[in-house]
Fold this protein.
Amino acid sequence: MDDTAASGTRTIRSFCRICTSVCGILVETDGDEVVKVRGDRDHPLSRGYTCPKGRSLPQMHHHPNRIERPLLKVDGELRPTSWDACLDDLGTRLRDIIDRHGPQAVGVFFGSGIGMDAAGYRMAQRLHAAIGTPAKFSPLTIDGTAKALISDLVGGSPALSGRPDYDNATFVLFVGSNPVVSHGHTVAMPNPTGTLRALRERAEVWVIDPRHTETARLASRHLAARPGADYAILAYLVREILRDGADREVIARSTQDSTVLAAAVEPFTLERAAQTADVSPDDLRDLLDAVRRAGRIAVETGTGVTMASSANVTQWLAWALMAITGSMNQPGGAWFHPGFGHQLEKAVLPISPAEGSFGPGPRSRPETQSFLGEWPCAVLADEINAGNIRAVLNLGGHLVTAFPDTERLVPALRDLELFATIEIIDNETTALSTHVLPTKDQLERADITLWDALLPRVAAQHTPAAVEPVGDRRSVWWVLAEIGRRLGHQLADTTSAEVTDETMLARITARARRPFADIAVEHWIEVPHEVPAPWVDAHVERMGGWRLAPRLLVDQLAALEPVESLVFTPRRQKRRLNSQLDHLGAVPEILLHPDDAAGAGVADSQPVTVRSASGAITGTARLDATLRRGVVSVPHGHQSANVNRLTCKDDLDLVTGMVRYGGIPVTIHPA
Ligand SMILES: Nc1nc2c(c(=O)[nH]1)N[C@H]1C(S)=C(S)[C@@H](COP(=O)(O)OP(=O)(O)OC[C@H]3O[C@@H](n4cnc5c(=O)[nH]c(N)nc54)[C@H](O)[C@@H]3O)O[C@H]1N2
Ligand SMILES: Nc1nc2c(c(=O)[nH]1)N[C@H]1C(S)=C(S)[C@@H](COP(=O)(O)OP(=O)(O)OC[C@H]3O[C@@H](n4cnc5c(=O)[nH]c(N)nc54)[C@H](O)[C@@H]3O)O[C@H]1N2
Ligand code: SF4
Ligand SMILES: [Mo]
């Protein structure tokens, strides 16, 4: 749709790229002005649904702090300049750093800001490969490394992206995910309230979360378990199902090491699990009964799991439980996305080594390792301090709020010889940068959905640009190819007016299920998926069955101890996306149980200071009697109450390099 009315107003059919739900939207414009964004009722996936974040795209586009010109730091001050001057300076300095110290002196962060820019993201991968630096960072190691780790170790491929078969499920267990607010972790759930209400009509929905969340309110049952102790509940379920209720034939045919798994979970009796997770034994018995009744089950985890120190073990036991109940690759259990742009069933999926896809870590932190070719975000400050990383290309990230240990990170970023940031709106990270590169926001660029596996369907969609770019904003792909050119790499023709965003999109969909021209015309193309999928069965058979008991996970389980003190846990907010959308006015509300607040002399709606061993932040106290006692729930992404002042770059899981982002001991004080 592109209705041009006589008055100069237009309505453009597009899709929202704030989060991975990619809802269909109609963008109303009047000349250069974006007047309104509303849901597209004809969209096959979202059917008219939007959330306040998507509807605020006009405010994001017209943000008072939007960046329109390239900025170059001169004498400690960012000054507007031309693209040529900015990129020439950047290119010269970058080449000099590489000549003096080698490509490993350049760190590249693939931030969320380019995560939904298909052409930009692909060009970032090409530039990173051309530079040839091992110092690659992404939200993988600050969001959910455990998920990719378990796909790799248990499923034999990080490309195996499992998700609940909501269409057929009769039992779904959410552990540490609140889709009503988040719209899903890694796998999107558009219209979550509608989806969950429909699910409840035929399925039992259980939620494990220290908060009585918006999702828990729609669920059949809720367990307010101790943060970081979810593994004990899952270990108990695995133990009991293996004893009585497991499908022997399925275990023999499609799994390996079930006896090692049984031995690993043997200590998790009802009493032990109830005590570790601090939930009632009756609730655990009910949960076990529900799993047995359902037969096939779907377990979905989120950042409540992946940000805890028990992340790997919890995610493993969730997969193990689905495998031993015969729920993997089966209706009502988990299904695996076959890809639209990159078709997984077309080639034989390589089987990852049983000991995991790890490589060497950075020199300054030899105890860490790389995973899937990435270094942990937690090592960046040390690598800069050691003089190993001297330049950082920050592609759409807000490092100051996203990376752990703000107190140690910020001085390190200040020490960089070069810190180039691709952005649309200024923030504390752009202020620290030496070069700020303004790129098109989502309404200014044509795009496609890039991350097939995050979609709940096997589909592709396209949007044209809704408005012309403001000021000097350019495409991310163009900016990165221009940087590449100055380093001697020909990544794309940046000089020809014939080479457009659409050209780049066509290029990256060359091997998709349907040609780019069709996607561009039809906006949304979907193909059905099979459950069971033969390519998944073939992969699992070649592997010798789901690997139920990877050694390193068995060892981690044996070493886990729950934290007993007052701890803080992470949470997302409805009117915010990570550090973004401050125009929606979400304040850093720190949720406290009234008893904990009373004990510390903190009152509702008053400023409260939360202190950890790393630092302190002050937000607004909100007393919530449904929150578990002993838990302080702190939202993420606020500059004013930056939760990463409470985290520590050295408090990490040595397997994945993921810093502990939840379950950290804190004290609370009236501010
Ligand atoms: N302690 C703690 N730390 C956390 C978390 C937590 O819960 N607790 N959450 C973690 C998680 S899950 C994640 S994913 C990371 C997120 O960390 P980041 O990847 O840094 O993501 P955002 O904070 O969303 O910042 C994205 C930036 O991109 C910009 N942007 C938006 N749209 C565009 C665009 O179209 N083009 C360009 N060029 N830029 C754009 C925004 O203005 C914003 O500054 O943080 C992690 N850090
Ligand atoms: N509105 C909005 N939507 C978002 C985002 C946003 O910032 N705002 N961010 C996007 C991003 S980048 C991501 S990664 C996803 C994340 O998606 P989700 O993982 O669903 O994120 P949350 O909504 O924070 O839900 C996590 C839940 O885990 C609970 N929790 C904390 N610690 C524990 C624990 O130890 N055990 C258990 N069982 N639960 C625990 C928290 O109380 C919270 O309810 O959301 C995405 N969507
Ligand atoms: S859920 Fe909201 S932010 Fe996410 S795609 Fe839909 S409208 Fe955009
Ligand atoms: Mo995330």
The CA atoms of residues 444 and 465 lie 5 Å apart. DSSP finds 27 helices and 31 strands in the chain. Residues 111-114, 117, 139, 142-143, 303, 396-398, 401-402, 422-425, 427, 439, 441-442, 476, 570, 577-580, 636-637, 643-644, 647, 661 surround MGD (ligand 1) (CB under 6 Å). The mean pLDDT is 96.
